[in-house]
């Protein structure tokens, strides 16, 4: 069928072969017949051939090499699936000789227009790296290129390639950090897991510990507690207290907060691996107050398959050691079901034990009483051990637990009794003098208990506290001497210890028994027992050859021993990254990357700043102002802040047919039909009801009364929202636009016109804002008096004599921290720029906050949109420490709100900055007297009641 000339037969054959491969059957014998069809023109056949070749190309390398030219042709195929499959097959041929071909193919695929092909290129990078590690430098270049890809399909794959090839090159992530955080929610599930794990390690190297202040307070408290036993100087204590008091409060980095905020929604993912990845990220990176959000998501995963439960419970058990309060509200979710596998039961027991406290211990102990009745012996033994741990950690229930364990000594099940003995032995070490009756009771059980560990525990207790049972201990030794040869090794060692202790405390009764036991041990098969017997004989039975050590035999054998601390086996697992294989196995697995420690000082956050390249709108690409004027305005634009004049204006526009009325605040901009010259006429709206006028007039008076208060509030709110490099200029431009909608602009026209006529430049679009700001009513009677006070004289702008106006808002261009002590602010002083009247004057204010002088302040490498120009300020040779200086530069924004980007340079550093103008700063005011204003108002009111007259190019309305 594969040799047939019919594509339908080939397709049927390939479907059967791929089905065999999917079922796990070996189809490698068909490789020669399949590889011949790689040149088939049928797309469906070619896809299945590539699927087969990906599976067997590594096994049949010689035959695959014969078709390598076909694979190379496939890289140029118009179909993206064929290109990706060809690259996948090529990277599966693990032969060193084709490394250059693979490298070239990967580089070409990394620039492919299809994101699916670029994703395949990212998958091929680790394969090529494992084949030839010397290609690492070239592969890093490809990875750097793919990391800049904004497609969600590529992000996860390239981060995986980064982790495999160059995880130490953390600087490659700096510029892409914010992009990865923002794309994370849309990346495929397994890509999300890889990116989150990588960002966890990245954040541990770039941000400060959010819990640093809490940990310092805890350490300080511990030092004070233990210092009470030592004689320390008061001066040292005062110095430590002063150091804690002087430490700056922690402020979370915005990029740190961005990571936490963008990963939080993924806790609701359907993929358990994604939820676990976010949980470990929050555990390792989030402040203690915010870690609790992961508890509910992890509890949700406990309803999944047992394999998922096992992994989740392993991580929960580790979390509950340090963050117990996080899971306490979900205590019942960890109750054990009879259908749970044994390993799940034991892990849930571990979690319940970690969550036990004085408030819930009674509930937990009732659960444990039920678990002891289970038929699963391993589970019962683990429950008894958990009871012992609860008794150790919570002193209030110690006696209760001990009594319950003693009752278990009469259980029919020998394993239950044995485990109870072991746990009781550990509990008795805390208060042996109060429980001598329990020791006697356990001594009577020595004949019935056959479990070696339990017998050894009883013998150790009797030997350790033989002074509490002086009559029973020798008799127990007599019984043990009879069965010494038949006991297990662990029991024999405890018999030797018991004999030695009784010989030192009661040698009259036990001297012969001890010698008998030592003689038996002398010829035992186990060399540990023989060695222990020789050691004890020389120590407790002194001879002429015995050394000085025998004098201290009692101190050696009968020394007080500290009570054992029953700890969780998960106590020290948190040094492994949660969710990793190393954490699951509690040992370092191959390829595991250690979780970095928090840095002592915060690294420079500016390394993650990316220069934003805004796309240039079509209207801003015009080479001349005339062309921009002639561009057609297709749709009317309604500002969000105007809700009253909209219906009236839209009705008017409907009467004019192809004429459009655009509402901008209280302005009406009328576009004449396209058969005439395009002119924008601005007029005041006068056809409103008298009731609305009175209402607005009262509102204007009220605003003037509270002008100073609102002005100060607006300034404080705006100052708090300014960024270091002008990244938030958009919102500021919106605010300034609303403040200056009453300002008019001159339209750039070659002819001179009457000074009373005015137009709004077509190149300045109104800026909408979701926030409605009250605007002073233009119909207010007090506006005319305000306008009369304006100065009508033209002033010449001198760069050396300008002082910043108190009413002009200052914007931050370079923060003093980012600028390493150099702070730069700017403002639009709203005066003419004498070198070029078409430019906007921008006043730059430099402040040197350092202790040394700054030299050679100047501008370099302006990056401007089409049509924009910059007139640089003269270079400042030197700015002394603590001094300030102001200069003026001119910028022609080409009637657009696009930012002007350039480098601000000193003699040592260069800083990327940008100036983005609010719309209002691009407008020039026209000054009118009260009579002129009323006359213009009367003329403009007729536009709403009759069609506009024909306006020719020589009309006095044109500027």
From TrEMBL:
Region of interest called Disordered, as start-end residue ranges on this chain: 594-654, 686-749, 934-959
AP-3 complex subunit beta C-terminal domain segment(s): 754-898
Topological relation to the membrane, as annotated: Peripheral membrane protein
GO biological process entries: intracellular protein transport; vesicle-mediated transport
Biased amino acid composition, Basic residues: 738-749
A GO cellular component annotation in the UniProt record: AP-3 adaptor complex
Biased composition (Basic and acidic residues): 624-637
Acidic residues composition-biased segments: 710-734
SMART domains assigned: AP3B1_C (SM01355)
InterPro entries named among the record's database cross-references: AP3_beta, AP3B_C, AP_beta, ARM-like, ARM-type_fold, Clathrin/coatomer_adapt-like_N
Gene3D superfamilies: Leucine-rich Repeat Variant (1.25.10.10)
Location in or out of the cell: Endomembrane system
Keywords: Membrane, Protein transport, Transport
KW Membrane (keyword) present: yes
Primary location: membrane
Domain of life: Eukaryota
Pfam families the UniProt entry points to: Adaptin_N, AP3B1_C
Record family assignment: Belongs to the adaptor complexes large subunit family.
Protein name, UniProt field: AP-3 complex subunit beta
Protein source organism: Electrophorus electricus (Electric eel)
Lineage: Eukaryota, Metazoa, Chordata, Craniata, Vertebrata
């Amino acid at each position: 069928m594969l040799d047939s000339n019919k594509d339908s037969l080939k397709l049927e054959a390939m479907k059967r072969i791929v089905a065999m491969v999917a079922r796990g059957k070996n189809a490698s014998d068909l490789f020669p017949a399949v590889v011949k069809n790689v040149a088939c023109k049928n797309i469906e056949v070619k896809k299945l051939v590539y699927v087969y070749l990906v599976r067997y190309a590594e096994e049949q390398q010689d035959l695959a090499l014969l078709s390598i030219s076909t694979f190379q042709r496939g890289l140029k195929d118009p179909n993206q699936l064929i290109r990706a499959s060809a690259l996948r097959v090529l990277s599966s041929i693990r032969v060193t000789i084709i490394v250059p071909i693979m490298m070239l193919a990967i580089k070409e695929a990394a620039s492919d227009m299809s994101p699916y092909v670029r994703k395949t290129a990212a998958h091929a990078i680790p394969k090529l790296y494992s084949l030839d590690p010397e290609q690492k430098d070239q592969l890093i270049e490809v990875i750097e290129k793919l990391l800049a890809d904004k497609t969600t399909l590529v992000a996860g794959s390239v981060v995986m390639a980064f982790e495999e090839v160059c995880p130490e090159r953390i600087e490659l992530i700096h510029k892409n950090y914010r992009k990865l955080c923002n794309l994370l929610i849309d990346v495929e599930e397994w890509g999300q897991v890889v990116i989150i794990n990588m960002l966890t390690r990245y954040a541990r190297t770039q941000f400060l510990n959010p819990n640093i202040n809490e940990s310092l307070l805890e350490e300080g408290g511990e030092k004070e507690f233990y210092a009470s036993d030592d004689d320390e100087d008061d001066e040292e204590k005062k110095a430590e207290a002063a150091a804690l008091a002087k430490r700056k409060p922690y402020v979370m980095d915005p990029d740190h907060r961005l990571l936490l905020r963008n990963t939080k929604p993924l806790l609701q993912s359907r993929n358990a691996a994604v939820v676990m990845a976010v949980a470990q990220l929050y555990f390792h990176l989030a402040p203690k107050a915010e870690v609790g959000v992961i508890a509910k998501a992890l509890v949700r995963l406990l309803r999944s398959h047992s394999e998922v439960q096992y992994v989740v419970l392993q991580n929960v058990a580790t979390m509950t050691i340090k963050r117990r309060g996080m899971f306490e509200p979900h205590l019942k979710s960890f109750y054990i079901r009879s259908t749970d596998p044994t390993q799940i039961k034991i892990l849930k027991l571990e979690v319940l034990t970690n969550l036990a406290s004085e408030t819930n211990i009674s509930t937990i102990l009732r659960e444990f009483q039920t678990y002891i009745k289970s038929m699963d012996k391993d589970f019962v033994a683990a429950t008894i051990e958990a009871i012992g741990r609860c008794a150790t950690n919570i002193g209030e229930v110690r006696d209760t637990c001990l009594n319950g364990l003693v009752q278990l000594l009469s259980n029919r099940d020998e394993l239950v009794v044995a485990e109870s003995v072991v746990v009781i032995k550990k509990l008795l070490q805390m208060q042996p003098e109060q429980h001598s009756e329990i020791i006697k009771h356990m001594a009577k059980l020595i004949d019935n208990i056959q479990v070696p560990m339990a017998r050894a525990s009883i013998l150790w207790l009797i030997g350790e506290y033989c002074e509490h049972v002086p009559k029973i201990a020798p008799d127990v030794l007599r019984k043990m001497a009879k069965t010494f040869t038949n006991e297990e090794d662990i029991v024999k060692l405890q018999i030797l210890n018991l004999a030695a202790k009784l010989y030192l405390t009661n040698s009259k009764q036990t001297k012969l028994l001890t010698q008998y036991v030592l003689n038996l041990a002398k010829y035992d098969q186990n060399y540990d027992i023989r060695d222990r017997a020789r050691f004890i004989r020389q120590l407790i039975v002194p001879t002429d050859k015995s050394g000085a050590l025998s004098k201290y035999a009692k101190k050696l054998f009968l020394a007080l021993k500290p009570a054992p601390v029953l700890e969780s086996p998960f106590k020290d697992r948190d040094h492994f990254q949660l969710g990793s294989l190393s954490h699951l196995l509690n040992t370092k697995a191959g390829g595991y990357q250690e979780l970095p420690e928090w840095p002592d000082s915060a690294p420079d956050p500016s390394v993650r700043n990316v220069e934003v390249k805004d796309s240039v709108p079509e209207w801003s690409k015009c080479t001349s102002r005339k062309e921009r004027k002639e561009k057609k305005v297709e749709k009317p634009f309604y500002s969000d802040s105007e809700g009253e004049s909209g219906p009236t204006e839209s009705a008017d526009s409907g009467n004019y047919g192809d004429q459009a009325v655009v509402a901008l605040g209280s302005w009406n901009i009328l576009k004449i039909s396209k058969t005439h010259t395009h002119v924008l006429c601005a007029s005041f709206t006068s056809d409103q009801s008298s009731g609305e006028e009175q209402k607005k007039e009262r509102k204007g008076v009220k605003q003037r009364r509270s002008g100073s208060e609102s002005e100060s509030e607006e300034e404080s709110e705006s100052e708090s929202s300014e960024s270091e490099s002008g990244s938030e200029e958009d919102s500021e431009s919106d605010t300034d636009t609303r403040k200056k909608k009453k300002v008019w602009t001159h339209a750039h026209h070659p002819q001179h016109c009457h000074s009373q006529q005015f137009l709004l430049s077509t190149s300045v679009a109104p800026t909408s804002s979701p926030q409605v700001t009250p605007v002073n009513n233009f119909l207010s009677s007090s506006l005319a008096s305000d306008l009369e006070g304006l100065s009508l004289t033209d002033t010449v702008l001198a760069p050396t004599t300008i002082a910043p106006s108190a009413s002009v808002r200052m914007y931050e261009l370079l923060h003093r921290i980012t600028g390493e002590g150099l702070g730069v602010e700017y403002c639009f002083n709203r005066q003419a720029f004498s070198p070029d009247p078409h430019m906007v004057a921008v006043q730059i204010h430099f402040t040197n906050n350092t202790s040394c002088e700054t030299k050679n302040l100047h501008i370099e490498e302006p990056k401007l949109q089409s049509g924009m120009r910059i007139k640089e300020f003269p270079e400042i040779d030197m700015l002394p420490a603590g001094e300030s200086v102001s200069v003026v530069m001119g910028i022609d924004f080409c009637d657009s709100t696009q930012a002007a980007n350039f480098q601000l340079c000193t003699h040592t550093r260069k800083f990327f900055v940008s100036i983005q103008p609010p719309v209002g700063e691009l407008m020039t005011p026209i000054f009118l007297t009260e009579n002129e204003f009323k006359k213009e108002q009367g003329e403009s009111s007729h536009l709403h009641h009759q069609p506009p007259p024909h306006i020719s190019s020589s009309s006095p309305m044109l500027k």
